[in-house]
Structures are given as C-alpha cells and as structure tokens.
Amino acid sequence: MNGGVETALVIGATSDIGRAIARKLADAGYALQLAARDPARLEREAQDLRVRAGAAATLRRCDVLEDGGVSLLDDLDPLPDIAVCVVGLLGDQAESQRDAAAAERVMRANYVGPALLLGALAERFERRGGGVLVGISSVAGERGRAANYVYGAAKAGFTAFLSGLRGRLVASGVRVVTIKPGFVRTRMTDGMDLPALLTAEPDEVAAAVVRAVRRRRDVVYVRRIWRPLMFIVRAVPERVFKRLKL
Asked: Averaged over 136-156, what is the pLDDT?
C-alpha cells in the first residue's frame, strides 16, 4: 500500500492496451507504476495520465527481451498490489518460418520474458502474503493454426504458465488472472481485416482486467463469444483441423 492507496504496476504501458489499462486503473483510484522499453515515450504517457486522470505515476524501464525484465524488480518501491503484464509481439509468421532469430523474438516477447517476470513477482507477492498478477494472453494459444503458430505457441506456453502458477499460489493469498482477448484493434493489428463481432477495443480489454480483479476471476475472455467459439475449435479433430485454412 502507498499511503493507503493501492499501487498497480503496468508492464508494457506504452502499448495501446497497456495505456488503456493504466487509464482504467487510474480511474479506479490506483497509484501507477508504469514500465516499458522506451523511457521518453513512457514519460509522455505518464504525463498524459497525470493531466487527464490526476494519476500518481512513477516510471520504470523494462525490456523483457534483455533479462526477462527481472531487473525491474530491484527498483520497485513499494511492491505493487497488482501487476499487469501486457507485453507481446505479434510478429510475422512467414518471417518466423525463415528466420530463427525472428521466431525466438516472438517466443521471448510473448512467453519467456513475461513468464520469467511474473514468476519473479510471484515470489515477492508470496513472501508478502498477497497480491494480484494479471497476464494478457490470447485465444491464439488455444490451438495452433498454420497462419500464426509461432505466436500461438508462445501464447499457449504463457497460458499454461499462468494456470500452473495459479495452482501453486492458490493457498498463498496471491491470485493469478489470465485475460484472453481475441482480435484487438491496435497499432499491432493496423491494416488487418478484422471481424467486427470478434474484435475488441483496448478499452474493453482494460475494463475486463479491472472487472476480473474486482470479481476474483481466474480466466476471462474479453468478448464472451470467444468461449463457445474456442470450445468448438478445440473439438475439431486434428485430421480435419490441419486441412482448414485458418
């Protein structure tokens, strides 16, 4: 607690979804710790939050591609009550197929880095005896599709990590929340032809995060239609699924 005010850490705060989550948490009364790779851009985002929302915001540099971002933890004071990891990289499937370094970058940005960072935070939360960890995963992790299987595999790993972490910490007072957006209209998806029914806005993702924290949810699909849709996708036999152009 920060003088009676709860503190929320947003990792990946300069992304469209990260910015929306930070604004929503500021509106909910949290003091903010904002972390991202680019300090200058992060300062601009923080200043906007201070002006628009009157939010208290401190800044931290964090790059999960360098060391899993764990050096961030040496500079966290106070230890946040909530930590939200929004880090991710869509990448390009064709490039990942050709270039092992590109594939590794997608895997590290979506799974290895976020998992290492939230795992290190979990240790600190567990010693304190409480806190909430939120990971932004994806429905892409529920089944490998030919069109984006490197990204999907990384998100599948992150989803499994969060599930296991949740089970490990169930009696510790630490909660772990998995948020599964489908398509989200952001700079990362700019230019893509996205189906309106399945495409959320960053503010929807942010609202889902705050609701999940308040209502003590474990796994949340940002748009409810994704839950039955992914149930059907998972049920398709592999001999059929591998021939689908998905």
From this structure: 95
Tell which wins on pLDDT, 48 or 218: 218
- CATH number for 188: 3.40.50.720
Q: How far are the Cα atoms of 2, 91, 149 from residue 7, in angstroms, in the given order?
A: 7, 32, 36
Residue 182 amino acid letter: G
Helix spans in 57-112 (H): 64-67, 93-98, 100-107
pLDDT at 2 over 60: no
How far is residue 178 from each of residues 87, 127, 158, measured CA to CA in Å? 13, 22, 9
What is the helix, strand, coil percentage profile of the chain, to 5?
55, 15, 30
Q: How many domains does the chain have?
A: 1
117 to 90, 107, 189: CA distances (angstroms): 19, 14, 25
- Domain assignment present for residue 2? The answer is no
For the annotated catalytic residues, the residue numbers are 151
Is 1 inside any structural domain?
A: no
CB neighbourhood size of 218 (10 A) = 13
pLDDT at 63: 87
Q: Which of 35, 11, 156, 138 is nearest to 84 (CA)?
A: 11
The answer as to whether 196 is a domain residue is yes
Q: Which amino acid appears at position 104 of this protein?
A: E
Residue at 131 is within a domain: yes
- Domain limits for position 187: 7-241
Query: Any residues with CB less than 8 A from the CB of 2 and at least 6 apart, and which?
Result: 31, 56, 78
Q: Locate 244 and state its tokens.
A: 């689908």
pTM over 0.85? The answer is yes
Structure confidence by residue, pLDDT tens digits, 159-199:
999 999 999 999 999 999 999 998 998 877 777 778 889 99
